Amino acid sequence: MSNDLPAGVERRTYDGRERLATQGEPVYGEPTDSDGWRAWDAGRSKLGAMLELDMDTGLDGGETVLYLGAASGTTVSHVADFAGPTYAVEFAPRPVRDLVGVAEDRDNLFPLLKDARDPSSYAHVVEADVDCLVMDVATRGQATVAIRNKQFLADDGRLLMAVKARSEDVTAEPDDVFDDVVSDLEAEYEILETAQLDRFHADHLGIVAQPK
Ligand SMILES: C[S@@+](CC[C@H](N)C(=O)[O-])C[C@H]1O[C@@H](n2cnc3c(N)ncnc32)[C@H](O)[C@@H]1O
């Protein structure tokens, strides 16, 4: 049985191929329809890959989202198309310049030039009890970042996380890295589902979890 896509995410055909799509202003040269829907490229988005792989993200549409590792806004632009208030944390100034441009077309997208390892630096801005914490930070200590940011997540909220093996250890076997990250996360999160994202992103693991 396939999991439902969130409201505001559809499968549409572009160039003869069915793809995920959201409705909003184009951001990265993606194919668009005349009625304002635009293709969501799972090859450029770990969350897109998790939805394409039919992971049960628990997203219904309209959620409050804290997104860590927003870069220039490729994925978070799609999230803001179907979600509610969307707080986008990124610590590199250059991509944040583009992210601010993406937010100009989206009233519900709030870019934050902050370090996700230091949640106290944005705790005064992000509302409490967000429904969803999305993480795509290519950094060492990805489980630690998820644990530090758990404070923002509602008790019944979801963590949707993409782990990049090479960011933890370039020499280790990805499966060993994934085991370690999952084991560290289990101190604070119940793991609901994991899936390798290799069809779209080499050496990445998708994780769906909820706070313990
Ligand atoms: C793989 S890219 C994110 C791509 C983006 N999520 C997307 O799908 O459009 C990872 C990003 O995490 C950012 N990052 C790494 N460590 C971070 C930290 N401690 N705080 C905030 N951002 C961080 C990097 O600067 C980079 O832009």
Automatic annotation (TrEMBL):
This is Fibrillarin-like rRNA/tRNA 2'-O-methyltransferase. Its EC number is 2.1.1.-. GO terms for biological process: box C/D sno(s)RNA 3'-end processing; tRNA processing. S-adenosyl-L-methionine binds at T74, T75, E90, F91, D115, A116, D136, V137, A138, T139. Interacts with nop5. Component of box C/D small ribonucleoprotein (sRNP) particles that contain rpl7ae, FlpA and nop5, plus a guide RNA. Involved in pre-rRNA and tRNA processing. Utilizes the methyl donor S-adenosyl-L-methionine to catalyze the site-specific 2'-hydroxyl methylation of ribose moieties in rRNA and tRNA. Site specificity is provided by a guide RNA that base pairs with the substrate. Methylation occurs at a characteristic distance from the sequence involved in base pairing with the guide RNA. Belongs to the methyltransferase superfamily. Fibrillarin family. Residues 1-34 are annotated as: Disordered. It comes from Haloferax elongans ATCC BAA-1513. PROSITE patterns: FIBRILLARIN (PS00566). SUPFAM superfamilies: S-adenosyl-L-methionine-dependent methyltransferases.
